[in-house]
Fold Helix-turn-helix domain, rpiR family protein.
Amino acid sequence: MIFLTHQHYFDYSKGQNLSQIEHEILAFLLSDSQNEQPCSIRMVAKELTTSTATIIRLCKKLGFSGYTAFTEKLRIEYTDHSPTEATQLLSANLNNHFTMYMKDYQDTLDALSIRDVTVFTQSLTTSHVVQIIGDESDAFITYIAAKLQSKGFRVLVSSSKDTLLNFEKNLNETMLILVFNRHSATESLLKKIDYVKEKK
């Protein structure tokens, strides 16, 4: 994994009017600084078919006293950006969450029938006002509401904790209700669903 990124390359090369070989040397040194045993200046020169003098001139052009000073600076930058135990754990957790997400996604698809999808699609295409029930602070709810609004729908967002009276007011002009719930359904939410079934 490369931690000294294109941004580092840009930081060192901007405004320097580097030649083609100098660009190649800089890119090589940025990459090489991540190895446990970085190349000596002679090895770099041989690898890039250039001279040690050209490499030293580049280091001085970039503001360093020479090859050693520049490569030591790169090693320090790499150490500062290298993965810690915490970031490695975070990466593992993200992988686990992604695996769980894909399983939930597939389970949802498996649970849906063609009839369910067809009915929902027809309801969506014939509705002008959509009410979304869920956590109003949820970024996903905000995203769905914005997407529907961009398609010309009038969107009403209400919380699953809203009173039945407030819910009923919105229901009078609602043509389609979407419920998003991350946890088990609360008694309040179940009452709203039952109420809709009776009225609609």
User: Anything to note?
Assistant: Confidence is low (pLDDT under 50) at residues 1-6. Residues 85-111 form the longest helix (27 residues). The chain has two domains: 6-81, 112-199. The radius of gyration is 30 Å.
